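Extended Data, record ABC transporter ATP-binding protein
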Amino acid sequence: MLSIKDLHSHYGLSHVIQGISLEVAAGEILGVFGRNGVGKTTLLKNIAGWVKPSSGSIELNGQAIGGIEPDAINRAGLAIVPEDRRIFPGLTVQENLELGLLGLKGAKPASKLNPVLERFPRLAERAKQSATTLSGGEQQMLSLARIMVAEPRVVLIDEPSEGLAPMIVAEIFAIVREMRDAGCAVVLVEQNIHEALAVCDRFVLIERGAVVFAGAAEDDAARAALLEKLAV
Ligand SMILES: Nc1ncnc2c1ncn2[C@@H]1O[C@H](COP(=O)(O)OP(=O)(O)OP(=O)(O)O)[C@@H](O)[C@H]1O
């Protein structure tokens, strides 16, 4: 579904992504782990089109998307939930959700929004309220719900558990699992390694902009090696 080959990316002279290759299949969650500043967020921004790659290829279902505009990548079926959640405080919960429909051709708003509002009753109850009245956990839910209305095929999620209480984190990861079970290819960047290992299928470890270790989450030896490398 998502295939990246020998991706390089710079901020000015700083060579942040140094030859990353990875694949994520439909119905699979890939965990992307690594210490602060190794390039995880920059990797997601390259895939979503927010930062242009210097070289290498990014394909979504065989279609080259590397370096094209974020809106076009979005229309090709890729959505990103960024670390800062991008909730618009001047808009209501429902209006924030409707932003997820922008650019969809022939979309019937109600038919796309209703199943998502049914899945997120707390957001449905607060549909007419300003998004600023939501708690941090509810804002993260809204950020996830907003991409779900467009039924993306590839989802990039950057540190969804950051700053949230354990109960809410469990709810967030349950939603990520549902996305996978609905057939999405999910790339999950997380610092919360233990929780993330419980949800992802495979993982890669990034150091200085390169994949230095990879494994299956159900492989005990691979998990132990990852935890040792991260010293967590
Ligand atoms: N807009 C930018 N301009 C210049 N340098 C940047 C920019 N954004 C990030 N960097 C630098 O690029 C490197 C990789 O940052 P990135 O945010 O991708 O890392 P990360 O692994 O996601 O870390 P974190 O977990 O802290 O978010 C860091 O050295 C960071 O300081």
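Summary. The two ends are 31 Å apart (CA to CA).
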